[in-house]
TrEMBL record:
Coiled coil: none annotated. InterPro entries: Dimeric_a/b-barrel (IPR011008), DUF1330 (IPR010753). PANTHER family: BLR0684 PROTEIN, PTHR41521. Residues 2-95 form the DUF1330 domain. This is DUF1330 domain-containing protein.
Length: 115
């Protein structure tokens, strides 16, 4: 199943270290089958608030996403971003092809107390 690294990054002033981070990040995730799915694009907020930017990197699976995050290559450049941009970053597994959410709804209904 695919997996994703999703970042919600707040606005930051331009800085040479951020530019270096962006220049170097692709080389850190490509060995793990990663690729940008969302980067440097505008988003449209439909509910709530979402200040800043969205970044999504896709991986073949959660093991590859974790291996990338923990890799010496990524950990070397991570401070270039984190010193200048606040944000939240998660790794999350995707759903299989043909995923049907009705099974989740059924399990949720079965867990409800009887009326």
């Amino acid at each position: 199943m695919p997996a994703y690294a999703i970042a919600h990054l707040r606005e930051a002033a331009p800085h040479p270290e951020i530019a270096e981070y962006i220049e170097r990040i692709t080389a850190t995730f490509e060995p793990y089958g990663g690729r940008f799915l969302v980067h440097a694009t505008q988003h449209e907020v439909k509910e709530g608030s979402w200040p800043g930017h969205v970044v999504v990197i896709g991986f073949p699976g959660i093991a590859e996403a974790r291996a990338w995050w923990d890799s010496p290559a990524y950990q070397e450049i991570a401070p270039l971003r984190s010193r200048h941009i606040e944000g939240d970053i998660i790794l999350v597994g995707g759903v299989p092809e043909g995923y049907d959410p009705t099974a989740t709804a059924k399990a949720m209904r079965e867990a409800l107390p009887a009326e």
